[in-house]
Design brief:
transmembrane helix; mainly alpha; 8 helices; Synaptophysin-like 2a; three-stranded antiparallel sheet; single chain
Length: 236
């Protein structure tokens, strides 16, 4: 009950922190986290090979559809030969671990940004009341910077493997269809952007560590730190 009353008494909406690097960079992190997981999690693409037949049969297209989380083996496609016989083939590879890890980091980063923005804009006095808030914020931000490094690197490698596995030239050469050739290549621009957003998030979260560090008692002079620990407002 006391904590609820404390939060109620500390509620004081103020857009001022958005003019400071601490709040402004957090908004950028919030936006780019959305871009990161949305460009990956909502992706769907297709790759095409052609069965080369003599005229007048032409070259029928064979289309394989794939998407997030990139368990390519779960996407069968039918190949119809020139004699009208059919076989079922599959794309090769499972790259779901790196894709899901990347999306998970993006979603949790978005949620953390939402929570801290509410804290910055509505409970700034509670945030600065003791040194505990900025220290916890710093530790979590450092952790997310490290996670963005891991997940972006892993997803970058995973995307390279997805491109190879969905390349029509590779599908035509490794499939049981001896009369197949490459067709339409899948559009990968959205996935390329997702990797870029991941490393942009890494830069933002790593850079923001400095501005959060300035809010902790480790950066303040001893008299300011003592005042904050006692529950008073920090000095000018």
């Amino acid at each position: 009950m006391a904590s609820v009353q404390s939060l109620a008494s500390g509620f004081s909406p103020d857009l001022g922190p958005l003019k400071e690097p601490l709040g402004f960079i957090r908004v950028l992190e919030w936006v780019f986290a959305i871009f990161a997981f949305a460009t990956t999690g909502g992706y769907s693409g297709k790759t095409t090979i052609k069965v080369t037949c003599q005229p007048p049969l032409g070259s029928p297209d064979v289309t394989a559809v794939f998407g997030y989380p990139f368990r390519l083996g779960a996407h069968p496609f039918e190949i119809t030969f020139c004699n009208s016989s059919q076989i079922t083939s599959h794309l090769q590879g499972d790259f779901s671990s790196s894709a899901e890890f990347y999306v998970c980091v993006g979603v949790f980063g978005f949620l953390y940004c939402t929570a801290t923005l509410i804290l910055y804009l509505c409970y700034q006095s509670v945030y600065r009341q003791t040194s505990r808030g900025p220290i916890i914020d710093l530790v979590v931000t450092v952790l997310f910077a490290f996670l963005w490094l891991l997940s972006s690197s892993a997803w970058g490698k995973g995307l390279t493997d997805v491109k190879w596995a969905t390349n029509p030239n590779n599908i035509a050469s490794t499939s049981t269809c001896h009369d197949c050739e490459a067709g339409e290549f899948p559009s990968m621009g959205r996935l390329n952007a997702s990797v870029i957003f991941g490393f942009l998030n890494l830069i933002l979260w790593a850079g923001n560590c400095w501005f959060i560090y300035k809010e902790t008692r480790f950066h303040k002079d001893p008299s300011q730190a003592a005042t904050v620990e006692e529950g008073g407002a920090p000095g000018p």
